[in-house]
Please model this.
Amino acid sequence: MDAFKEAIRSGLEEYLQSLERAIDGLTPAEARWQPTMHTNHIAWLVWHMARVEDSWVSRLVRGTTQVWNADGWADRFGMDPEDNGFGQTSEDVRGMPEIPLRELMAYFGRSSCRHTPISGPCLRRRPVAGVFQQGQ
Model:
């Protein structure tokens, strides 16, 4: 296996496992706790991280529609299919539907490279505006 693919796969898997350990056992109230009214709660951060990775992996690596839309996660969570968290206000963050962390992590797992074999399309580099040229 090429060292680049292994490094990317390993890094993505490691941070997803660390996140799973960090949020394990949190109550719904803890998942939505905000130290101040102008900070993001844990559930929002997990959702935003998943949305960003879904966008990157789908667009830059797989060349497919985002899992968020393709698998109906936006509808399932009662959220706007175009939302990804960028530009949201403190009110938007507080207004996020109450979604169990296990459901958010299920979406995160589906949207990440974890769900695609290492030899499959998730880590197969493809040209995108000069990014990840085949054979680099």
